[in-house]
Each structure stands twice: as C-alpha cells, then as structure tokens.
Amino acid sequence: MATTTAAVTLTSDLLSDNMSVSATTTCMKAGTTADGLDGMEYGYLDLVTGDEYDLIGATPTASKASKLYLKNHSTDETYFIAITQNAQAIGKLYGGDWMFIPADFHDAAGDIAITANGGTNKICYALFHEGITLVTT
Amino acid sequence: MPTTTATITLSSADLLSDELALSTTMTLTKTTTSTGVEDTTGLNRKKITSTAKGTASGQITLYTADDFAAIPYLYIKNLETTVGNRIYVYDDTTSGDPTQFQLDAGDWGFIPMHGDKTYKAYATTNPTSIEFMVTGQDQ
User: Fold this and answer.
1) Low-confidence ranges of chain B (pLDDT < 70)
2) Scanning A2, A114, B68, B105, which has its CA 20 to 30 A from the CA of B139?
3) Please, which pLDDT band fits residue A134 given cuts at 50, 70 and 90?
4) In chain A, which residues have their Cβ closer than 8 Å to the Cβ of B18?
C-alpha cells in the first residue's frame, strides 16, 4: 500500500501567546485504516481569464476518498482563482494561497471548477484518489 | 503587524517512482494586500451531536456569513479515530444546504473561503469531536 501523508502547521503571533497548531493525516481509502490512496494526478498550468474550467478532467469513483491540494502560484496579490464544486462557490485563492480539502468528488457535477480573475493565474494542483474514470471524448 | 502562516507538507516514499516531497508556506493577508490578517476565532474544540443537516439541533456553526471580510481562512479537523465517523461541512446560506467537504476520522482541511456563506457541520455519529479555527479580518 502507498503511504501519503499531509501535514499542516499554522503559526501566528495574533494572540497574547504564540500559536502553533499542527495536524497530520495519512491519506487513506474510504472506510479503512489499512490501505492508503494509491492514485495521484498532478498539474502545473496557466489559467487564463474568461471561462470556467474543470480542474479535474476525470471523475473519481463514487463514494471513494479524494484529497485535493491546490495552490495559486501567481505573484500578483490581486490575481485570484474562484473555486466551485457542483456550481457552488467554495473558495478563492489569491496569489500565494493554497487549500487542501478532503471531499467526495462523486460525479461530473461534483468536480471542482476554477475561474481565473485579474489575469492569467499560475496554479499547481495534486489530486490524491483511489480510482478515477476517464471522461470519453 | 501580526504574522500568521500556514504550511502544508505532502510526502510519500512509495506512491510514485520517486519520492514525493512538497512543502509550501503562505502568509495569511488581507485581501489584495500584503498586510497580515488581524483577527481570529481562536482554536475551538467541540462535539457535534447532530447526524443531519437542516433544522436538526446539535450542528456546529463553523463560520457565520460576512463575519469576516474576504478572505476568511478555515482550518478544520476531525478528531475522531474510528473510520467512518465522518464530519460533513455544508453551506447553510445556499438553498438546499449543499455539502462542501467531508472529513473522515483524522482528516483535516484548510480552505480560504468566500466569506459570504455560513458553514455548519454535522456528523455520522453522535457525538463527534471537531477542531476548527477561522482567521481573517473582522468587519
């Protein structure tokens, strides 16, 4: 089995005492602690303005585990990408921001779609999954 | 100016033919500026006692619409250890309460949100422990 870990550390001096929060998870297939996600799709691309694009071209298998990492590598802090899932807005990534979400991208409508704003955005993404179905041409 | 950072590290020695080691850090800033955000809900740990979305009681409100100016950053973790004890995060502002994310035991997520929607959580099991924090700019 493949073992993939995702860790986050949040640090801040916002409060009276310094804050440091860390969390780590091993990316597992749905319903088990013994078998890790064994599929991965990775991309680094330019996202032009004007249209909404499906970030995930294939459909992860229904009711399976998926984890999505997405980062906006744009250096202009006014550029951003809008992110929707099943036509519902879920977030915005300005230049330099990243997100990590565990989700069930169960069908074509449930996939993640992205739109560039401000100019051509550079993005990097990684989808960890346990099986996908390619979309027919 | 306060400085708040979020670092993610993705790693695997055996998923690919070569080692996967991806790490990146972002500084949480006010929208379209390089000035750090100044407000946070602080770290919360609560028990979700609702196993349905909608009108049932026992759901946890993670964020209330327009509480912060865009972009509020949501950190969330499912503190359970039993596989299948899932947390569902849904958009309570939009008609139909669409589910946005689901976290199995041990899963965490980090989401820069739009800020104009209320997010709530319910779980498959009563009770389910959740940890969460929103950091951003109050308005």
Assistant:
1) 55-56
2) A114
3) confident
4) none
User: Domain residues of chain A, as ranges?
Assistant: 37-133
Selected for mutation to probe chain A from B66, B86, B110 (highest A CB count within 10 Å) is B110
Asked: is B31-138 a CATH 2.60.120.770 domain? The reply is yes
Q: Output b/e per residue, B104-118; b: 16+ Cβ within 10 A.
A: bbbbbbbbbbbbebb
- Give pTM, 2 decimals: 0.94
* CATH (one of 3.90.550.10, 1.20.1000.10, 2.60.120.10, 3.30.720.10) for A37-133: 2.60.120.10
Please, which residues 64-93 of chain B have a Cβ atom closer than 8 Å to chain A?
Answer: 70-71, 75, 77, 83-84, 91
**Residues of B (10-39) whose Cβ lies below 8 Å from A:** 10-16, 20, 22, 24, 26-27, 29, 31-34, 37-39
Q: Left, alpha or beta for B98 (phi > 0: left; psi -120 to 50: alpha)?
A: beta
Tell me which residue in A8, A12, A14 faces B110 most closely, judged by beta carbons: A8
Task: Tell me which residue of B71, B66, B62, B118 sits closest to B94, measured CA to CA.
Answer: B118
In sequence order, what are the residues at sequence separation of 6 or more whose Cβ sits closer than 8 angstroms to the Cβ of residue A78?
Answer: A94, A95, A118, B32
CA distance to partner chain B, nearest, from residue A83 (Å): 9
**Residues forming beta bridges with residue B6, ordered by sequence position:** A10, B26
